[in-house]
Amino acid sequence: MAKTLEMQFVNEEGKTVTISVDAPKETLTKEEITAAMDGLLNAGIFTSGGGDLTLKKGARTVDRTVTEISI
After folding, report:
1. pLDDT of residue 1
2. Which of 11, 15, 22, 47 has the most beta carbons within 10 angstroms of its beta carbon?
3. Which InterPro entries match (predicted)?
4. Where exactly are the structural domains of the chain?
């Protein structure tokens, strides 16, 4: 099973921008995710087609199962 952490932000145009991290550690806490998102906002290193990221919108983990099919 593959797990991804998706951190959602709002840009200057009010649109949602998602930054995904593959295989996050299992023990991540809400506080650690919030601190990481605050760090990304404060550093200003990410931008989008709608401008800079301005606010945190939310975060979630996504689990998916991948089954290879031999052809």
Report:
1. 75
2. 11
3. DUF2922
4. 2-64
Give the per-residue pLDDT at 66.
85
The residues, any chain, with a CB within 8 Å of residue 20's CB and separated by 6 or more, are: 4, 5, 6, 7
Which pLDDT tens digit goes with each residue over 32-47? 999 999 999 999 999 8
User: Phi, psi (5° rounding) for residue 27?
Assistant: -95, 10
State the Cα–Cα distance between residues 56 and 34, nearest whole angstrom: 9
CA separation for the pair 41, 19 (Å, rounded): 12
**CA 61 to CA 38: how far, in whole Å?**
18
Q: Tokens at residue 22, please?
A: 């593959």
Q: Which of 46, 63, 68 is nearest to 55 (CA)?
A: 46
38/65 Cα distance (integer angstroms): 30
